[in-house]
Amino acid sequence: TKLAAAANPAYMLIEKKTAYKDATTYNNFYEFGTDKAEPAQNAGTLKTRPWSISIEGEVKKPMTLDIDSLMKLAPMEERVYRLRCVEGWSMVIPWIGYSLSNLIKKAEPTGNAKFIEFVTLEDKKQMPGQRRAVLEWPYVEGLRMDEANHPLALLTFGMYGEVLPNQNGAPVRIIVPWKYGFKSVKSIVKIRFSKEQPKTAWNLAAANEYGFYSNVNPDVDHPRWSQATERRIGEDGIFTKKRKTLMFNGYNEVAPLYAGMDLKKFY
Amino acid sequence: MINPTPKQISILKSILFVLALLPFVRLVAFVFLDRLGANPVEFITRNTGDWTLYFLCITLGVTPLRKLSKWNWLIKLRRMIGLYAFFYATLHFTTFLWFDHFFDVAEMWKDVVKRPFITVGFIAFVLLIPLAVTSTNGMVKRLGGKRWLWIHRLVYLIAPLGILHYFWMKAGKHDFAQPFLFGAIVAALLALRLVWRWQGKRVQQRAAA
């Protein structure tokens, strides 16, 4: 299904876009299986209508928004972002959505709101991968308030001119391009504002490997592999040297968010 | 009981040779047909790693199968299966050195030392080398059966190390189903040997008494 959006010239990359086929058949979405081919094979069971998101916690107006009104909250933009997976590969994807800050403004967080937690749907019938205790379900990820309010953080409904395919996190997900991909929660049903730092899925599973911040950082290795380089999917063939990973995935405008923080400690 | 003639054995060996080469042929074909998927290096790495473990398990399975079936001729096929385990392990290591590190040996060495799952995999691969080198009839003669046997018992260490390497790799994804399956198979194959040894000793003791 087509999804109309105006290209935002501030976020166009000159890099070559990843092929649609690669971006939609090579996915980490454990709710549909741990193999990267499985989400495309299994995500047909996900029902994206009706769909609603509940907004809870430290907000003046807790509410439930249905997907269609959520989509009308702000004008849709197309933005081309680099996506860097913690596993050492990357893609370039044209997403469609609007800045997350639009929704935050509508929710009117209280002064206590320091963090936002995003929660994926939990339903073993629709998400067969949840029958296995690979992670604690539902999938939870979070951002600090100022991170979530950064204009780059995108509430996302589509890609490549169409609505999101199920395996890419339909009907609504976030994209946080300066962080490793697992921070960008898919198929969101709940957004919760909180005082305390949320307990996030991968951090609970292996705190020494996956920090809360998980900013793309070539100087901080994953315990089991280096993060200094990456392989661009579809472009870097087997005989190509891997390319250098950029700090914040090349989005240096987010650096002030972390001024004075030791990013080796807060990885 | 099946008891093939030498000629039948050599035919069997040829068939086995071709069958065991098929995964490699498939991989090469996939390279040329562009069927390695979005991340070709990952595909090759996993595929060659998987086949190394398969062949290690099959090699370890030969003796138990021979004892249970009384098909003693099976032993004549074991060397080739073991060498295929080494062949796929070499491809696996080459993928790591070539496609992952582009022959930057210093960088590769950093990985080997720093990351336990790679360290373990590397040790397992290095330990396989003496087994492959001493696999010829000439080497068996030169070393003498007993010494040769001791060297080749290294496989009891190599297989668990290979599985630990796989387990650690999968640990990051919290996905232990396959490593556990491999672990159970190898544990069973090794446990059978212990049981037989123990029974053998009891029989000897009884005979001595």
UniProtKB/TrEMBL annotation, chain B:
Cofactor note: Binds 1 heme b (iron(II)-protoporphyrin IX) group per subunit. Binds 1 FMN per subunit.
Keyword Cell membrane on entry: yes
Biological processes annotated in GO: protein repair
Cofactor names: heme b; FMN
Domain of life per record: Bacteria
Keyword Ligase applies: no
UniProt xrefs under InterPro entries: Fe3_Rdtase_TM_dom, MsrQ-like
MF annotations from Gene Ontology: electron transfer activity; FMN binding; heme binding; metal ion binding; oxidoreductase activity, acting on diphenols and related substances as donors
Main localization (coarse): membrane
Quaternary data: Heterodimer of a catalytic subunit (MsrP) and a heme-binding subunit (MsrQ).
Domain (Ferric oxidoreductase) ranges: 58-162
Subcellular location: Cell membrane; Membrane
Record protein name field: Protein-methionine-sulfoxide reductase heme-binding subunit MsrQ
Function statement: Part of the MsrPQ system that repairs oxidized periplasmic proteins containing methionine sulfoxide residues (Met-O), using respiratory chain electrons. Thus protects these proteins from oxidative-stress damage caused by reactive species of oxygen and chlorine generated by the host defense mechanisms. MsrPQ is essential for the maintenance of envelope integrity under bleach stress, rescuing a wide series of structurally unrelated periplasmic proteins from methionine oxidation.
Membership in a protein family: Belongs to the MsrQ family.
Record keywords: Cell membrane, Electron transport, Flavoprotein, FMN, Heme, Iron, Membrane, Metal-binding, Transmembrane, Transmembrane helix, Transport
Membrane-spanning parts: 12-33, 53-69, 81-99, 119-138, 150-168, 180-196
Membrane topology listed for this record: Multi-pass membrane protein
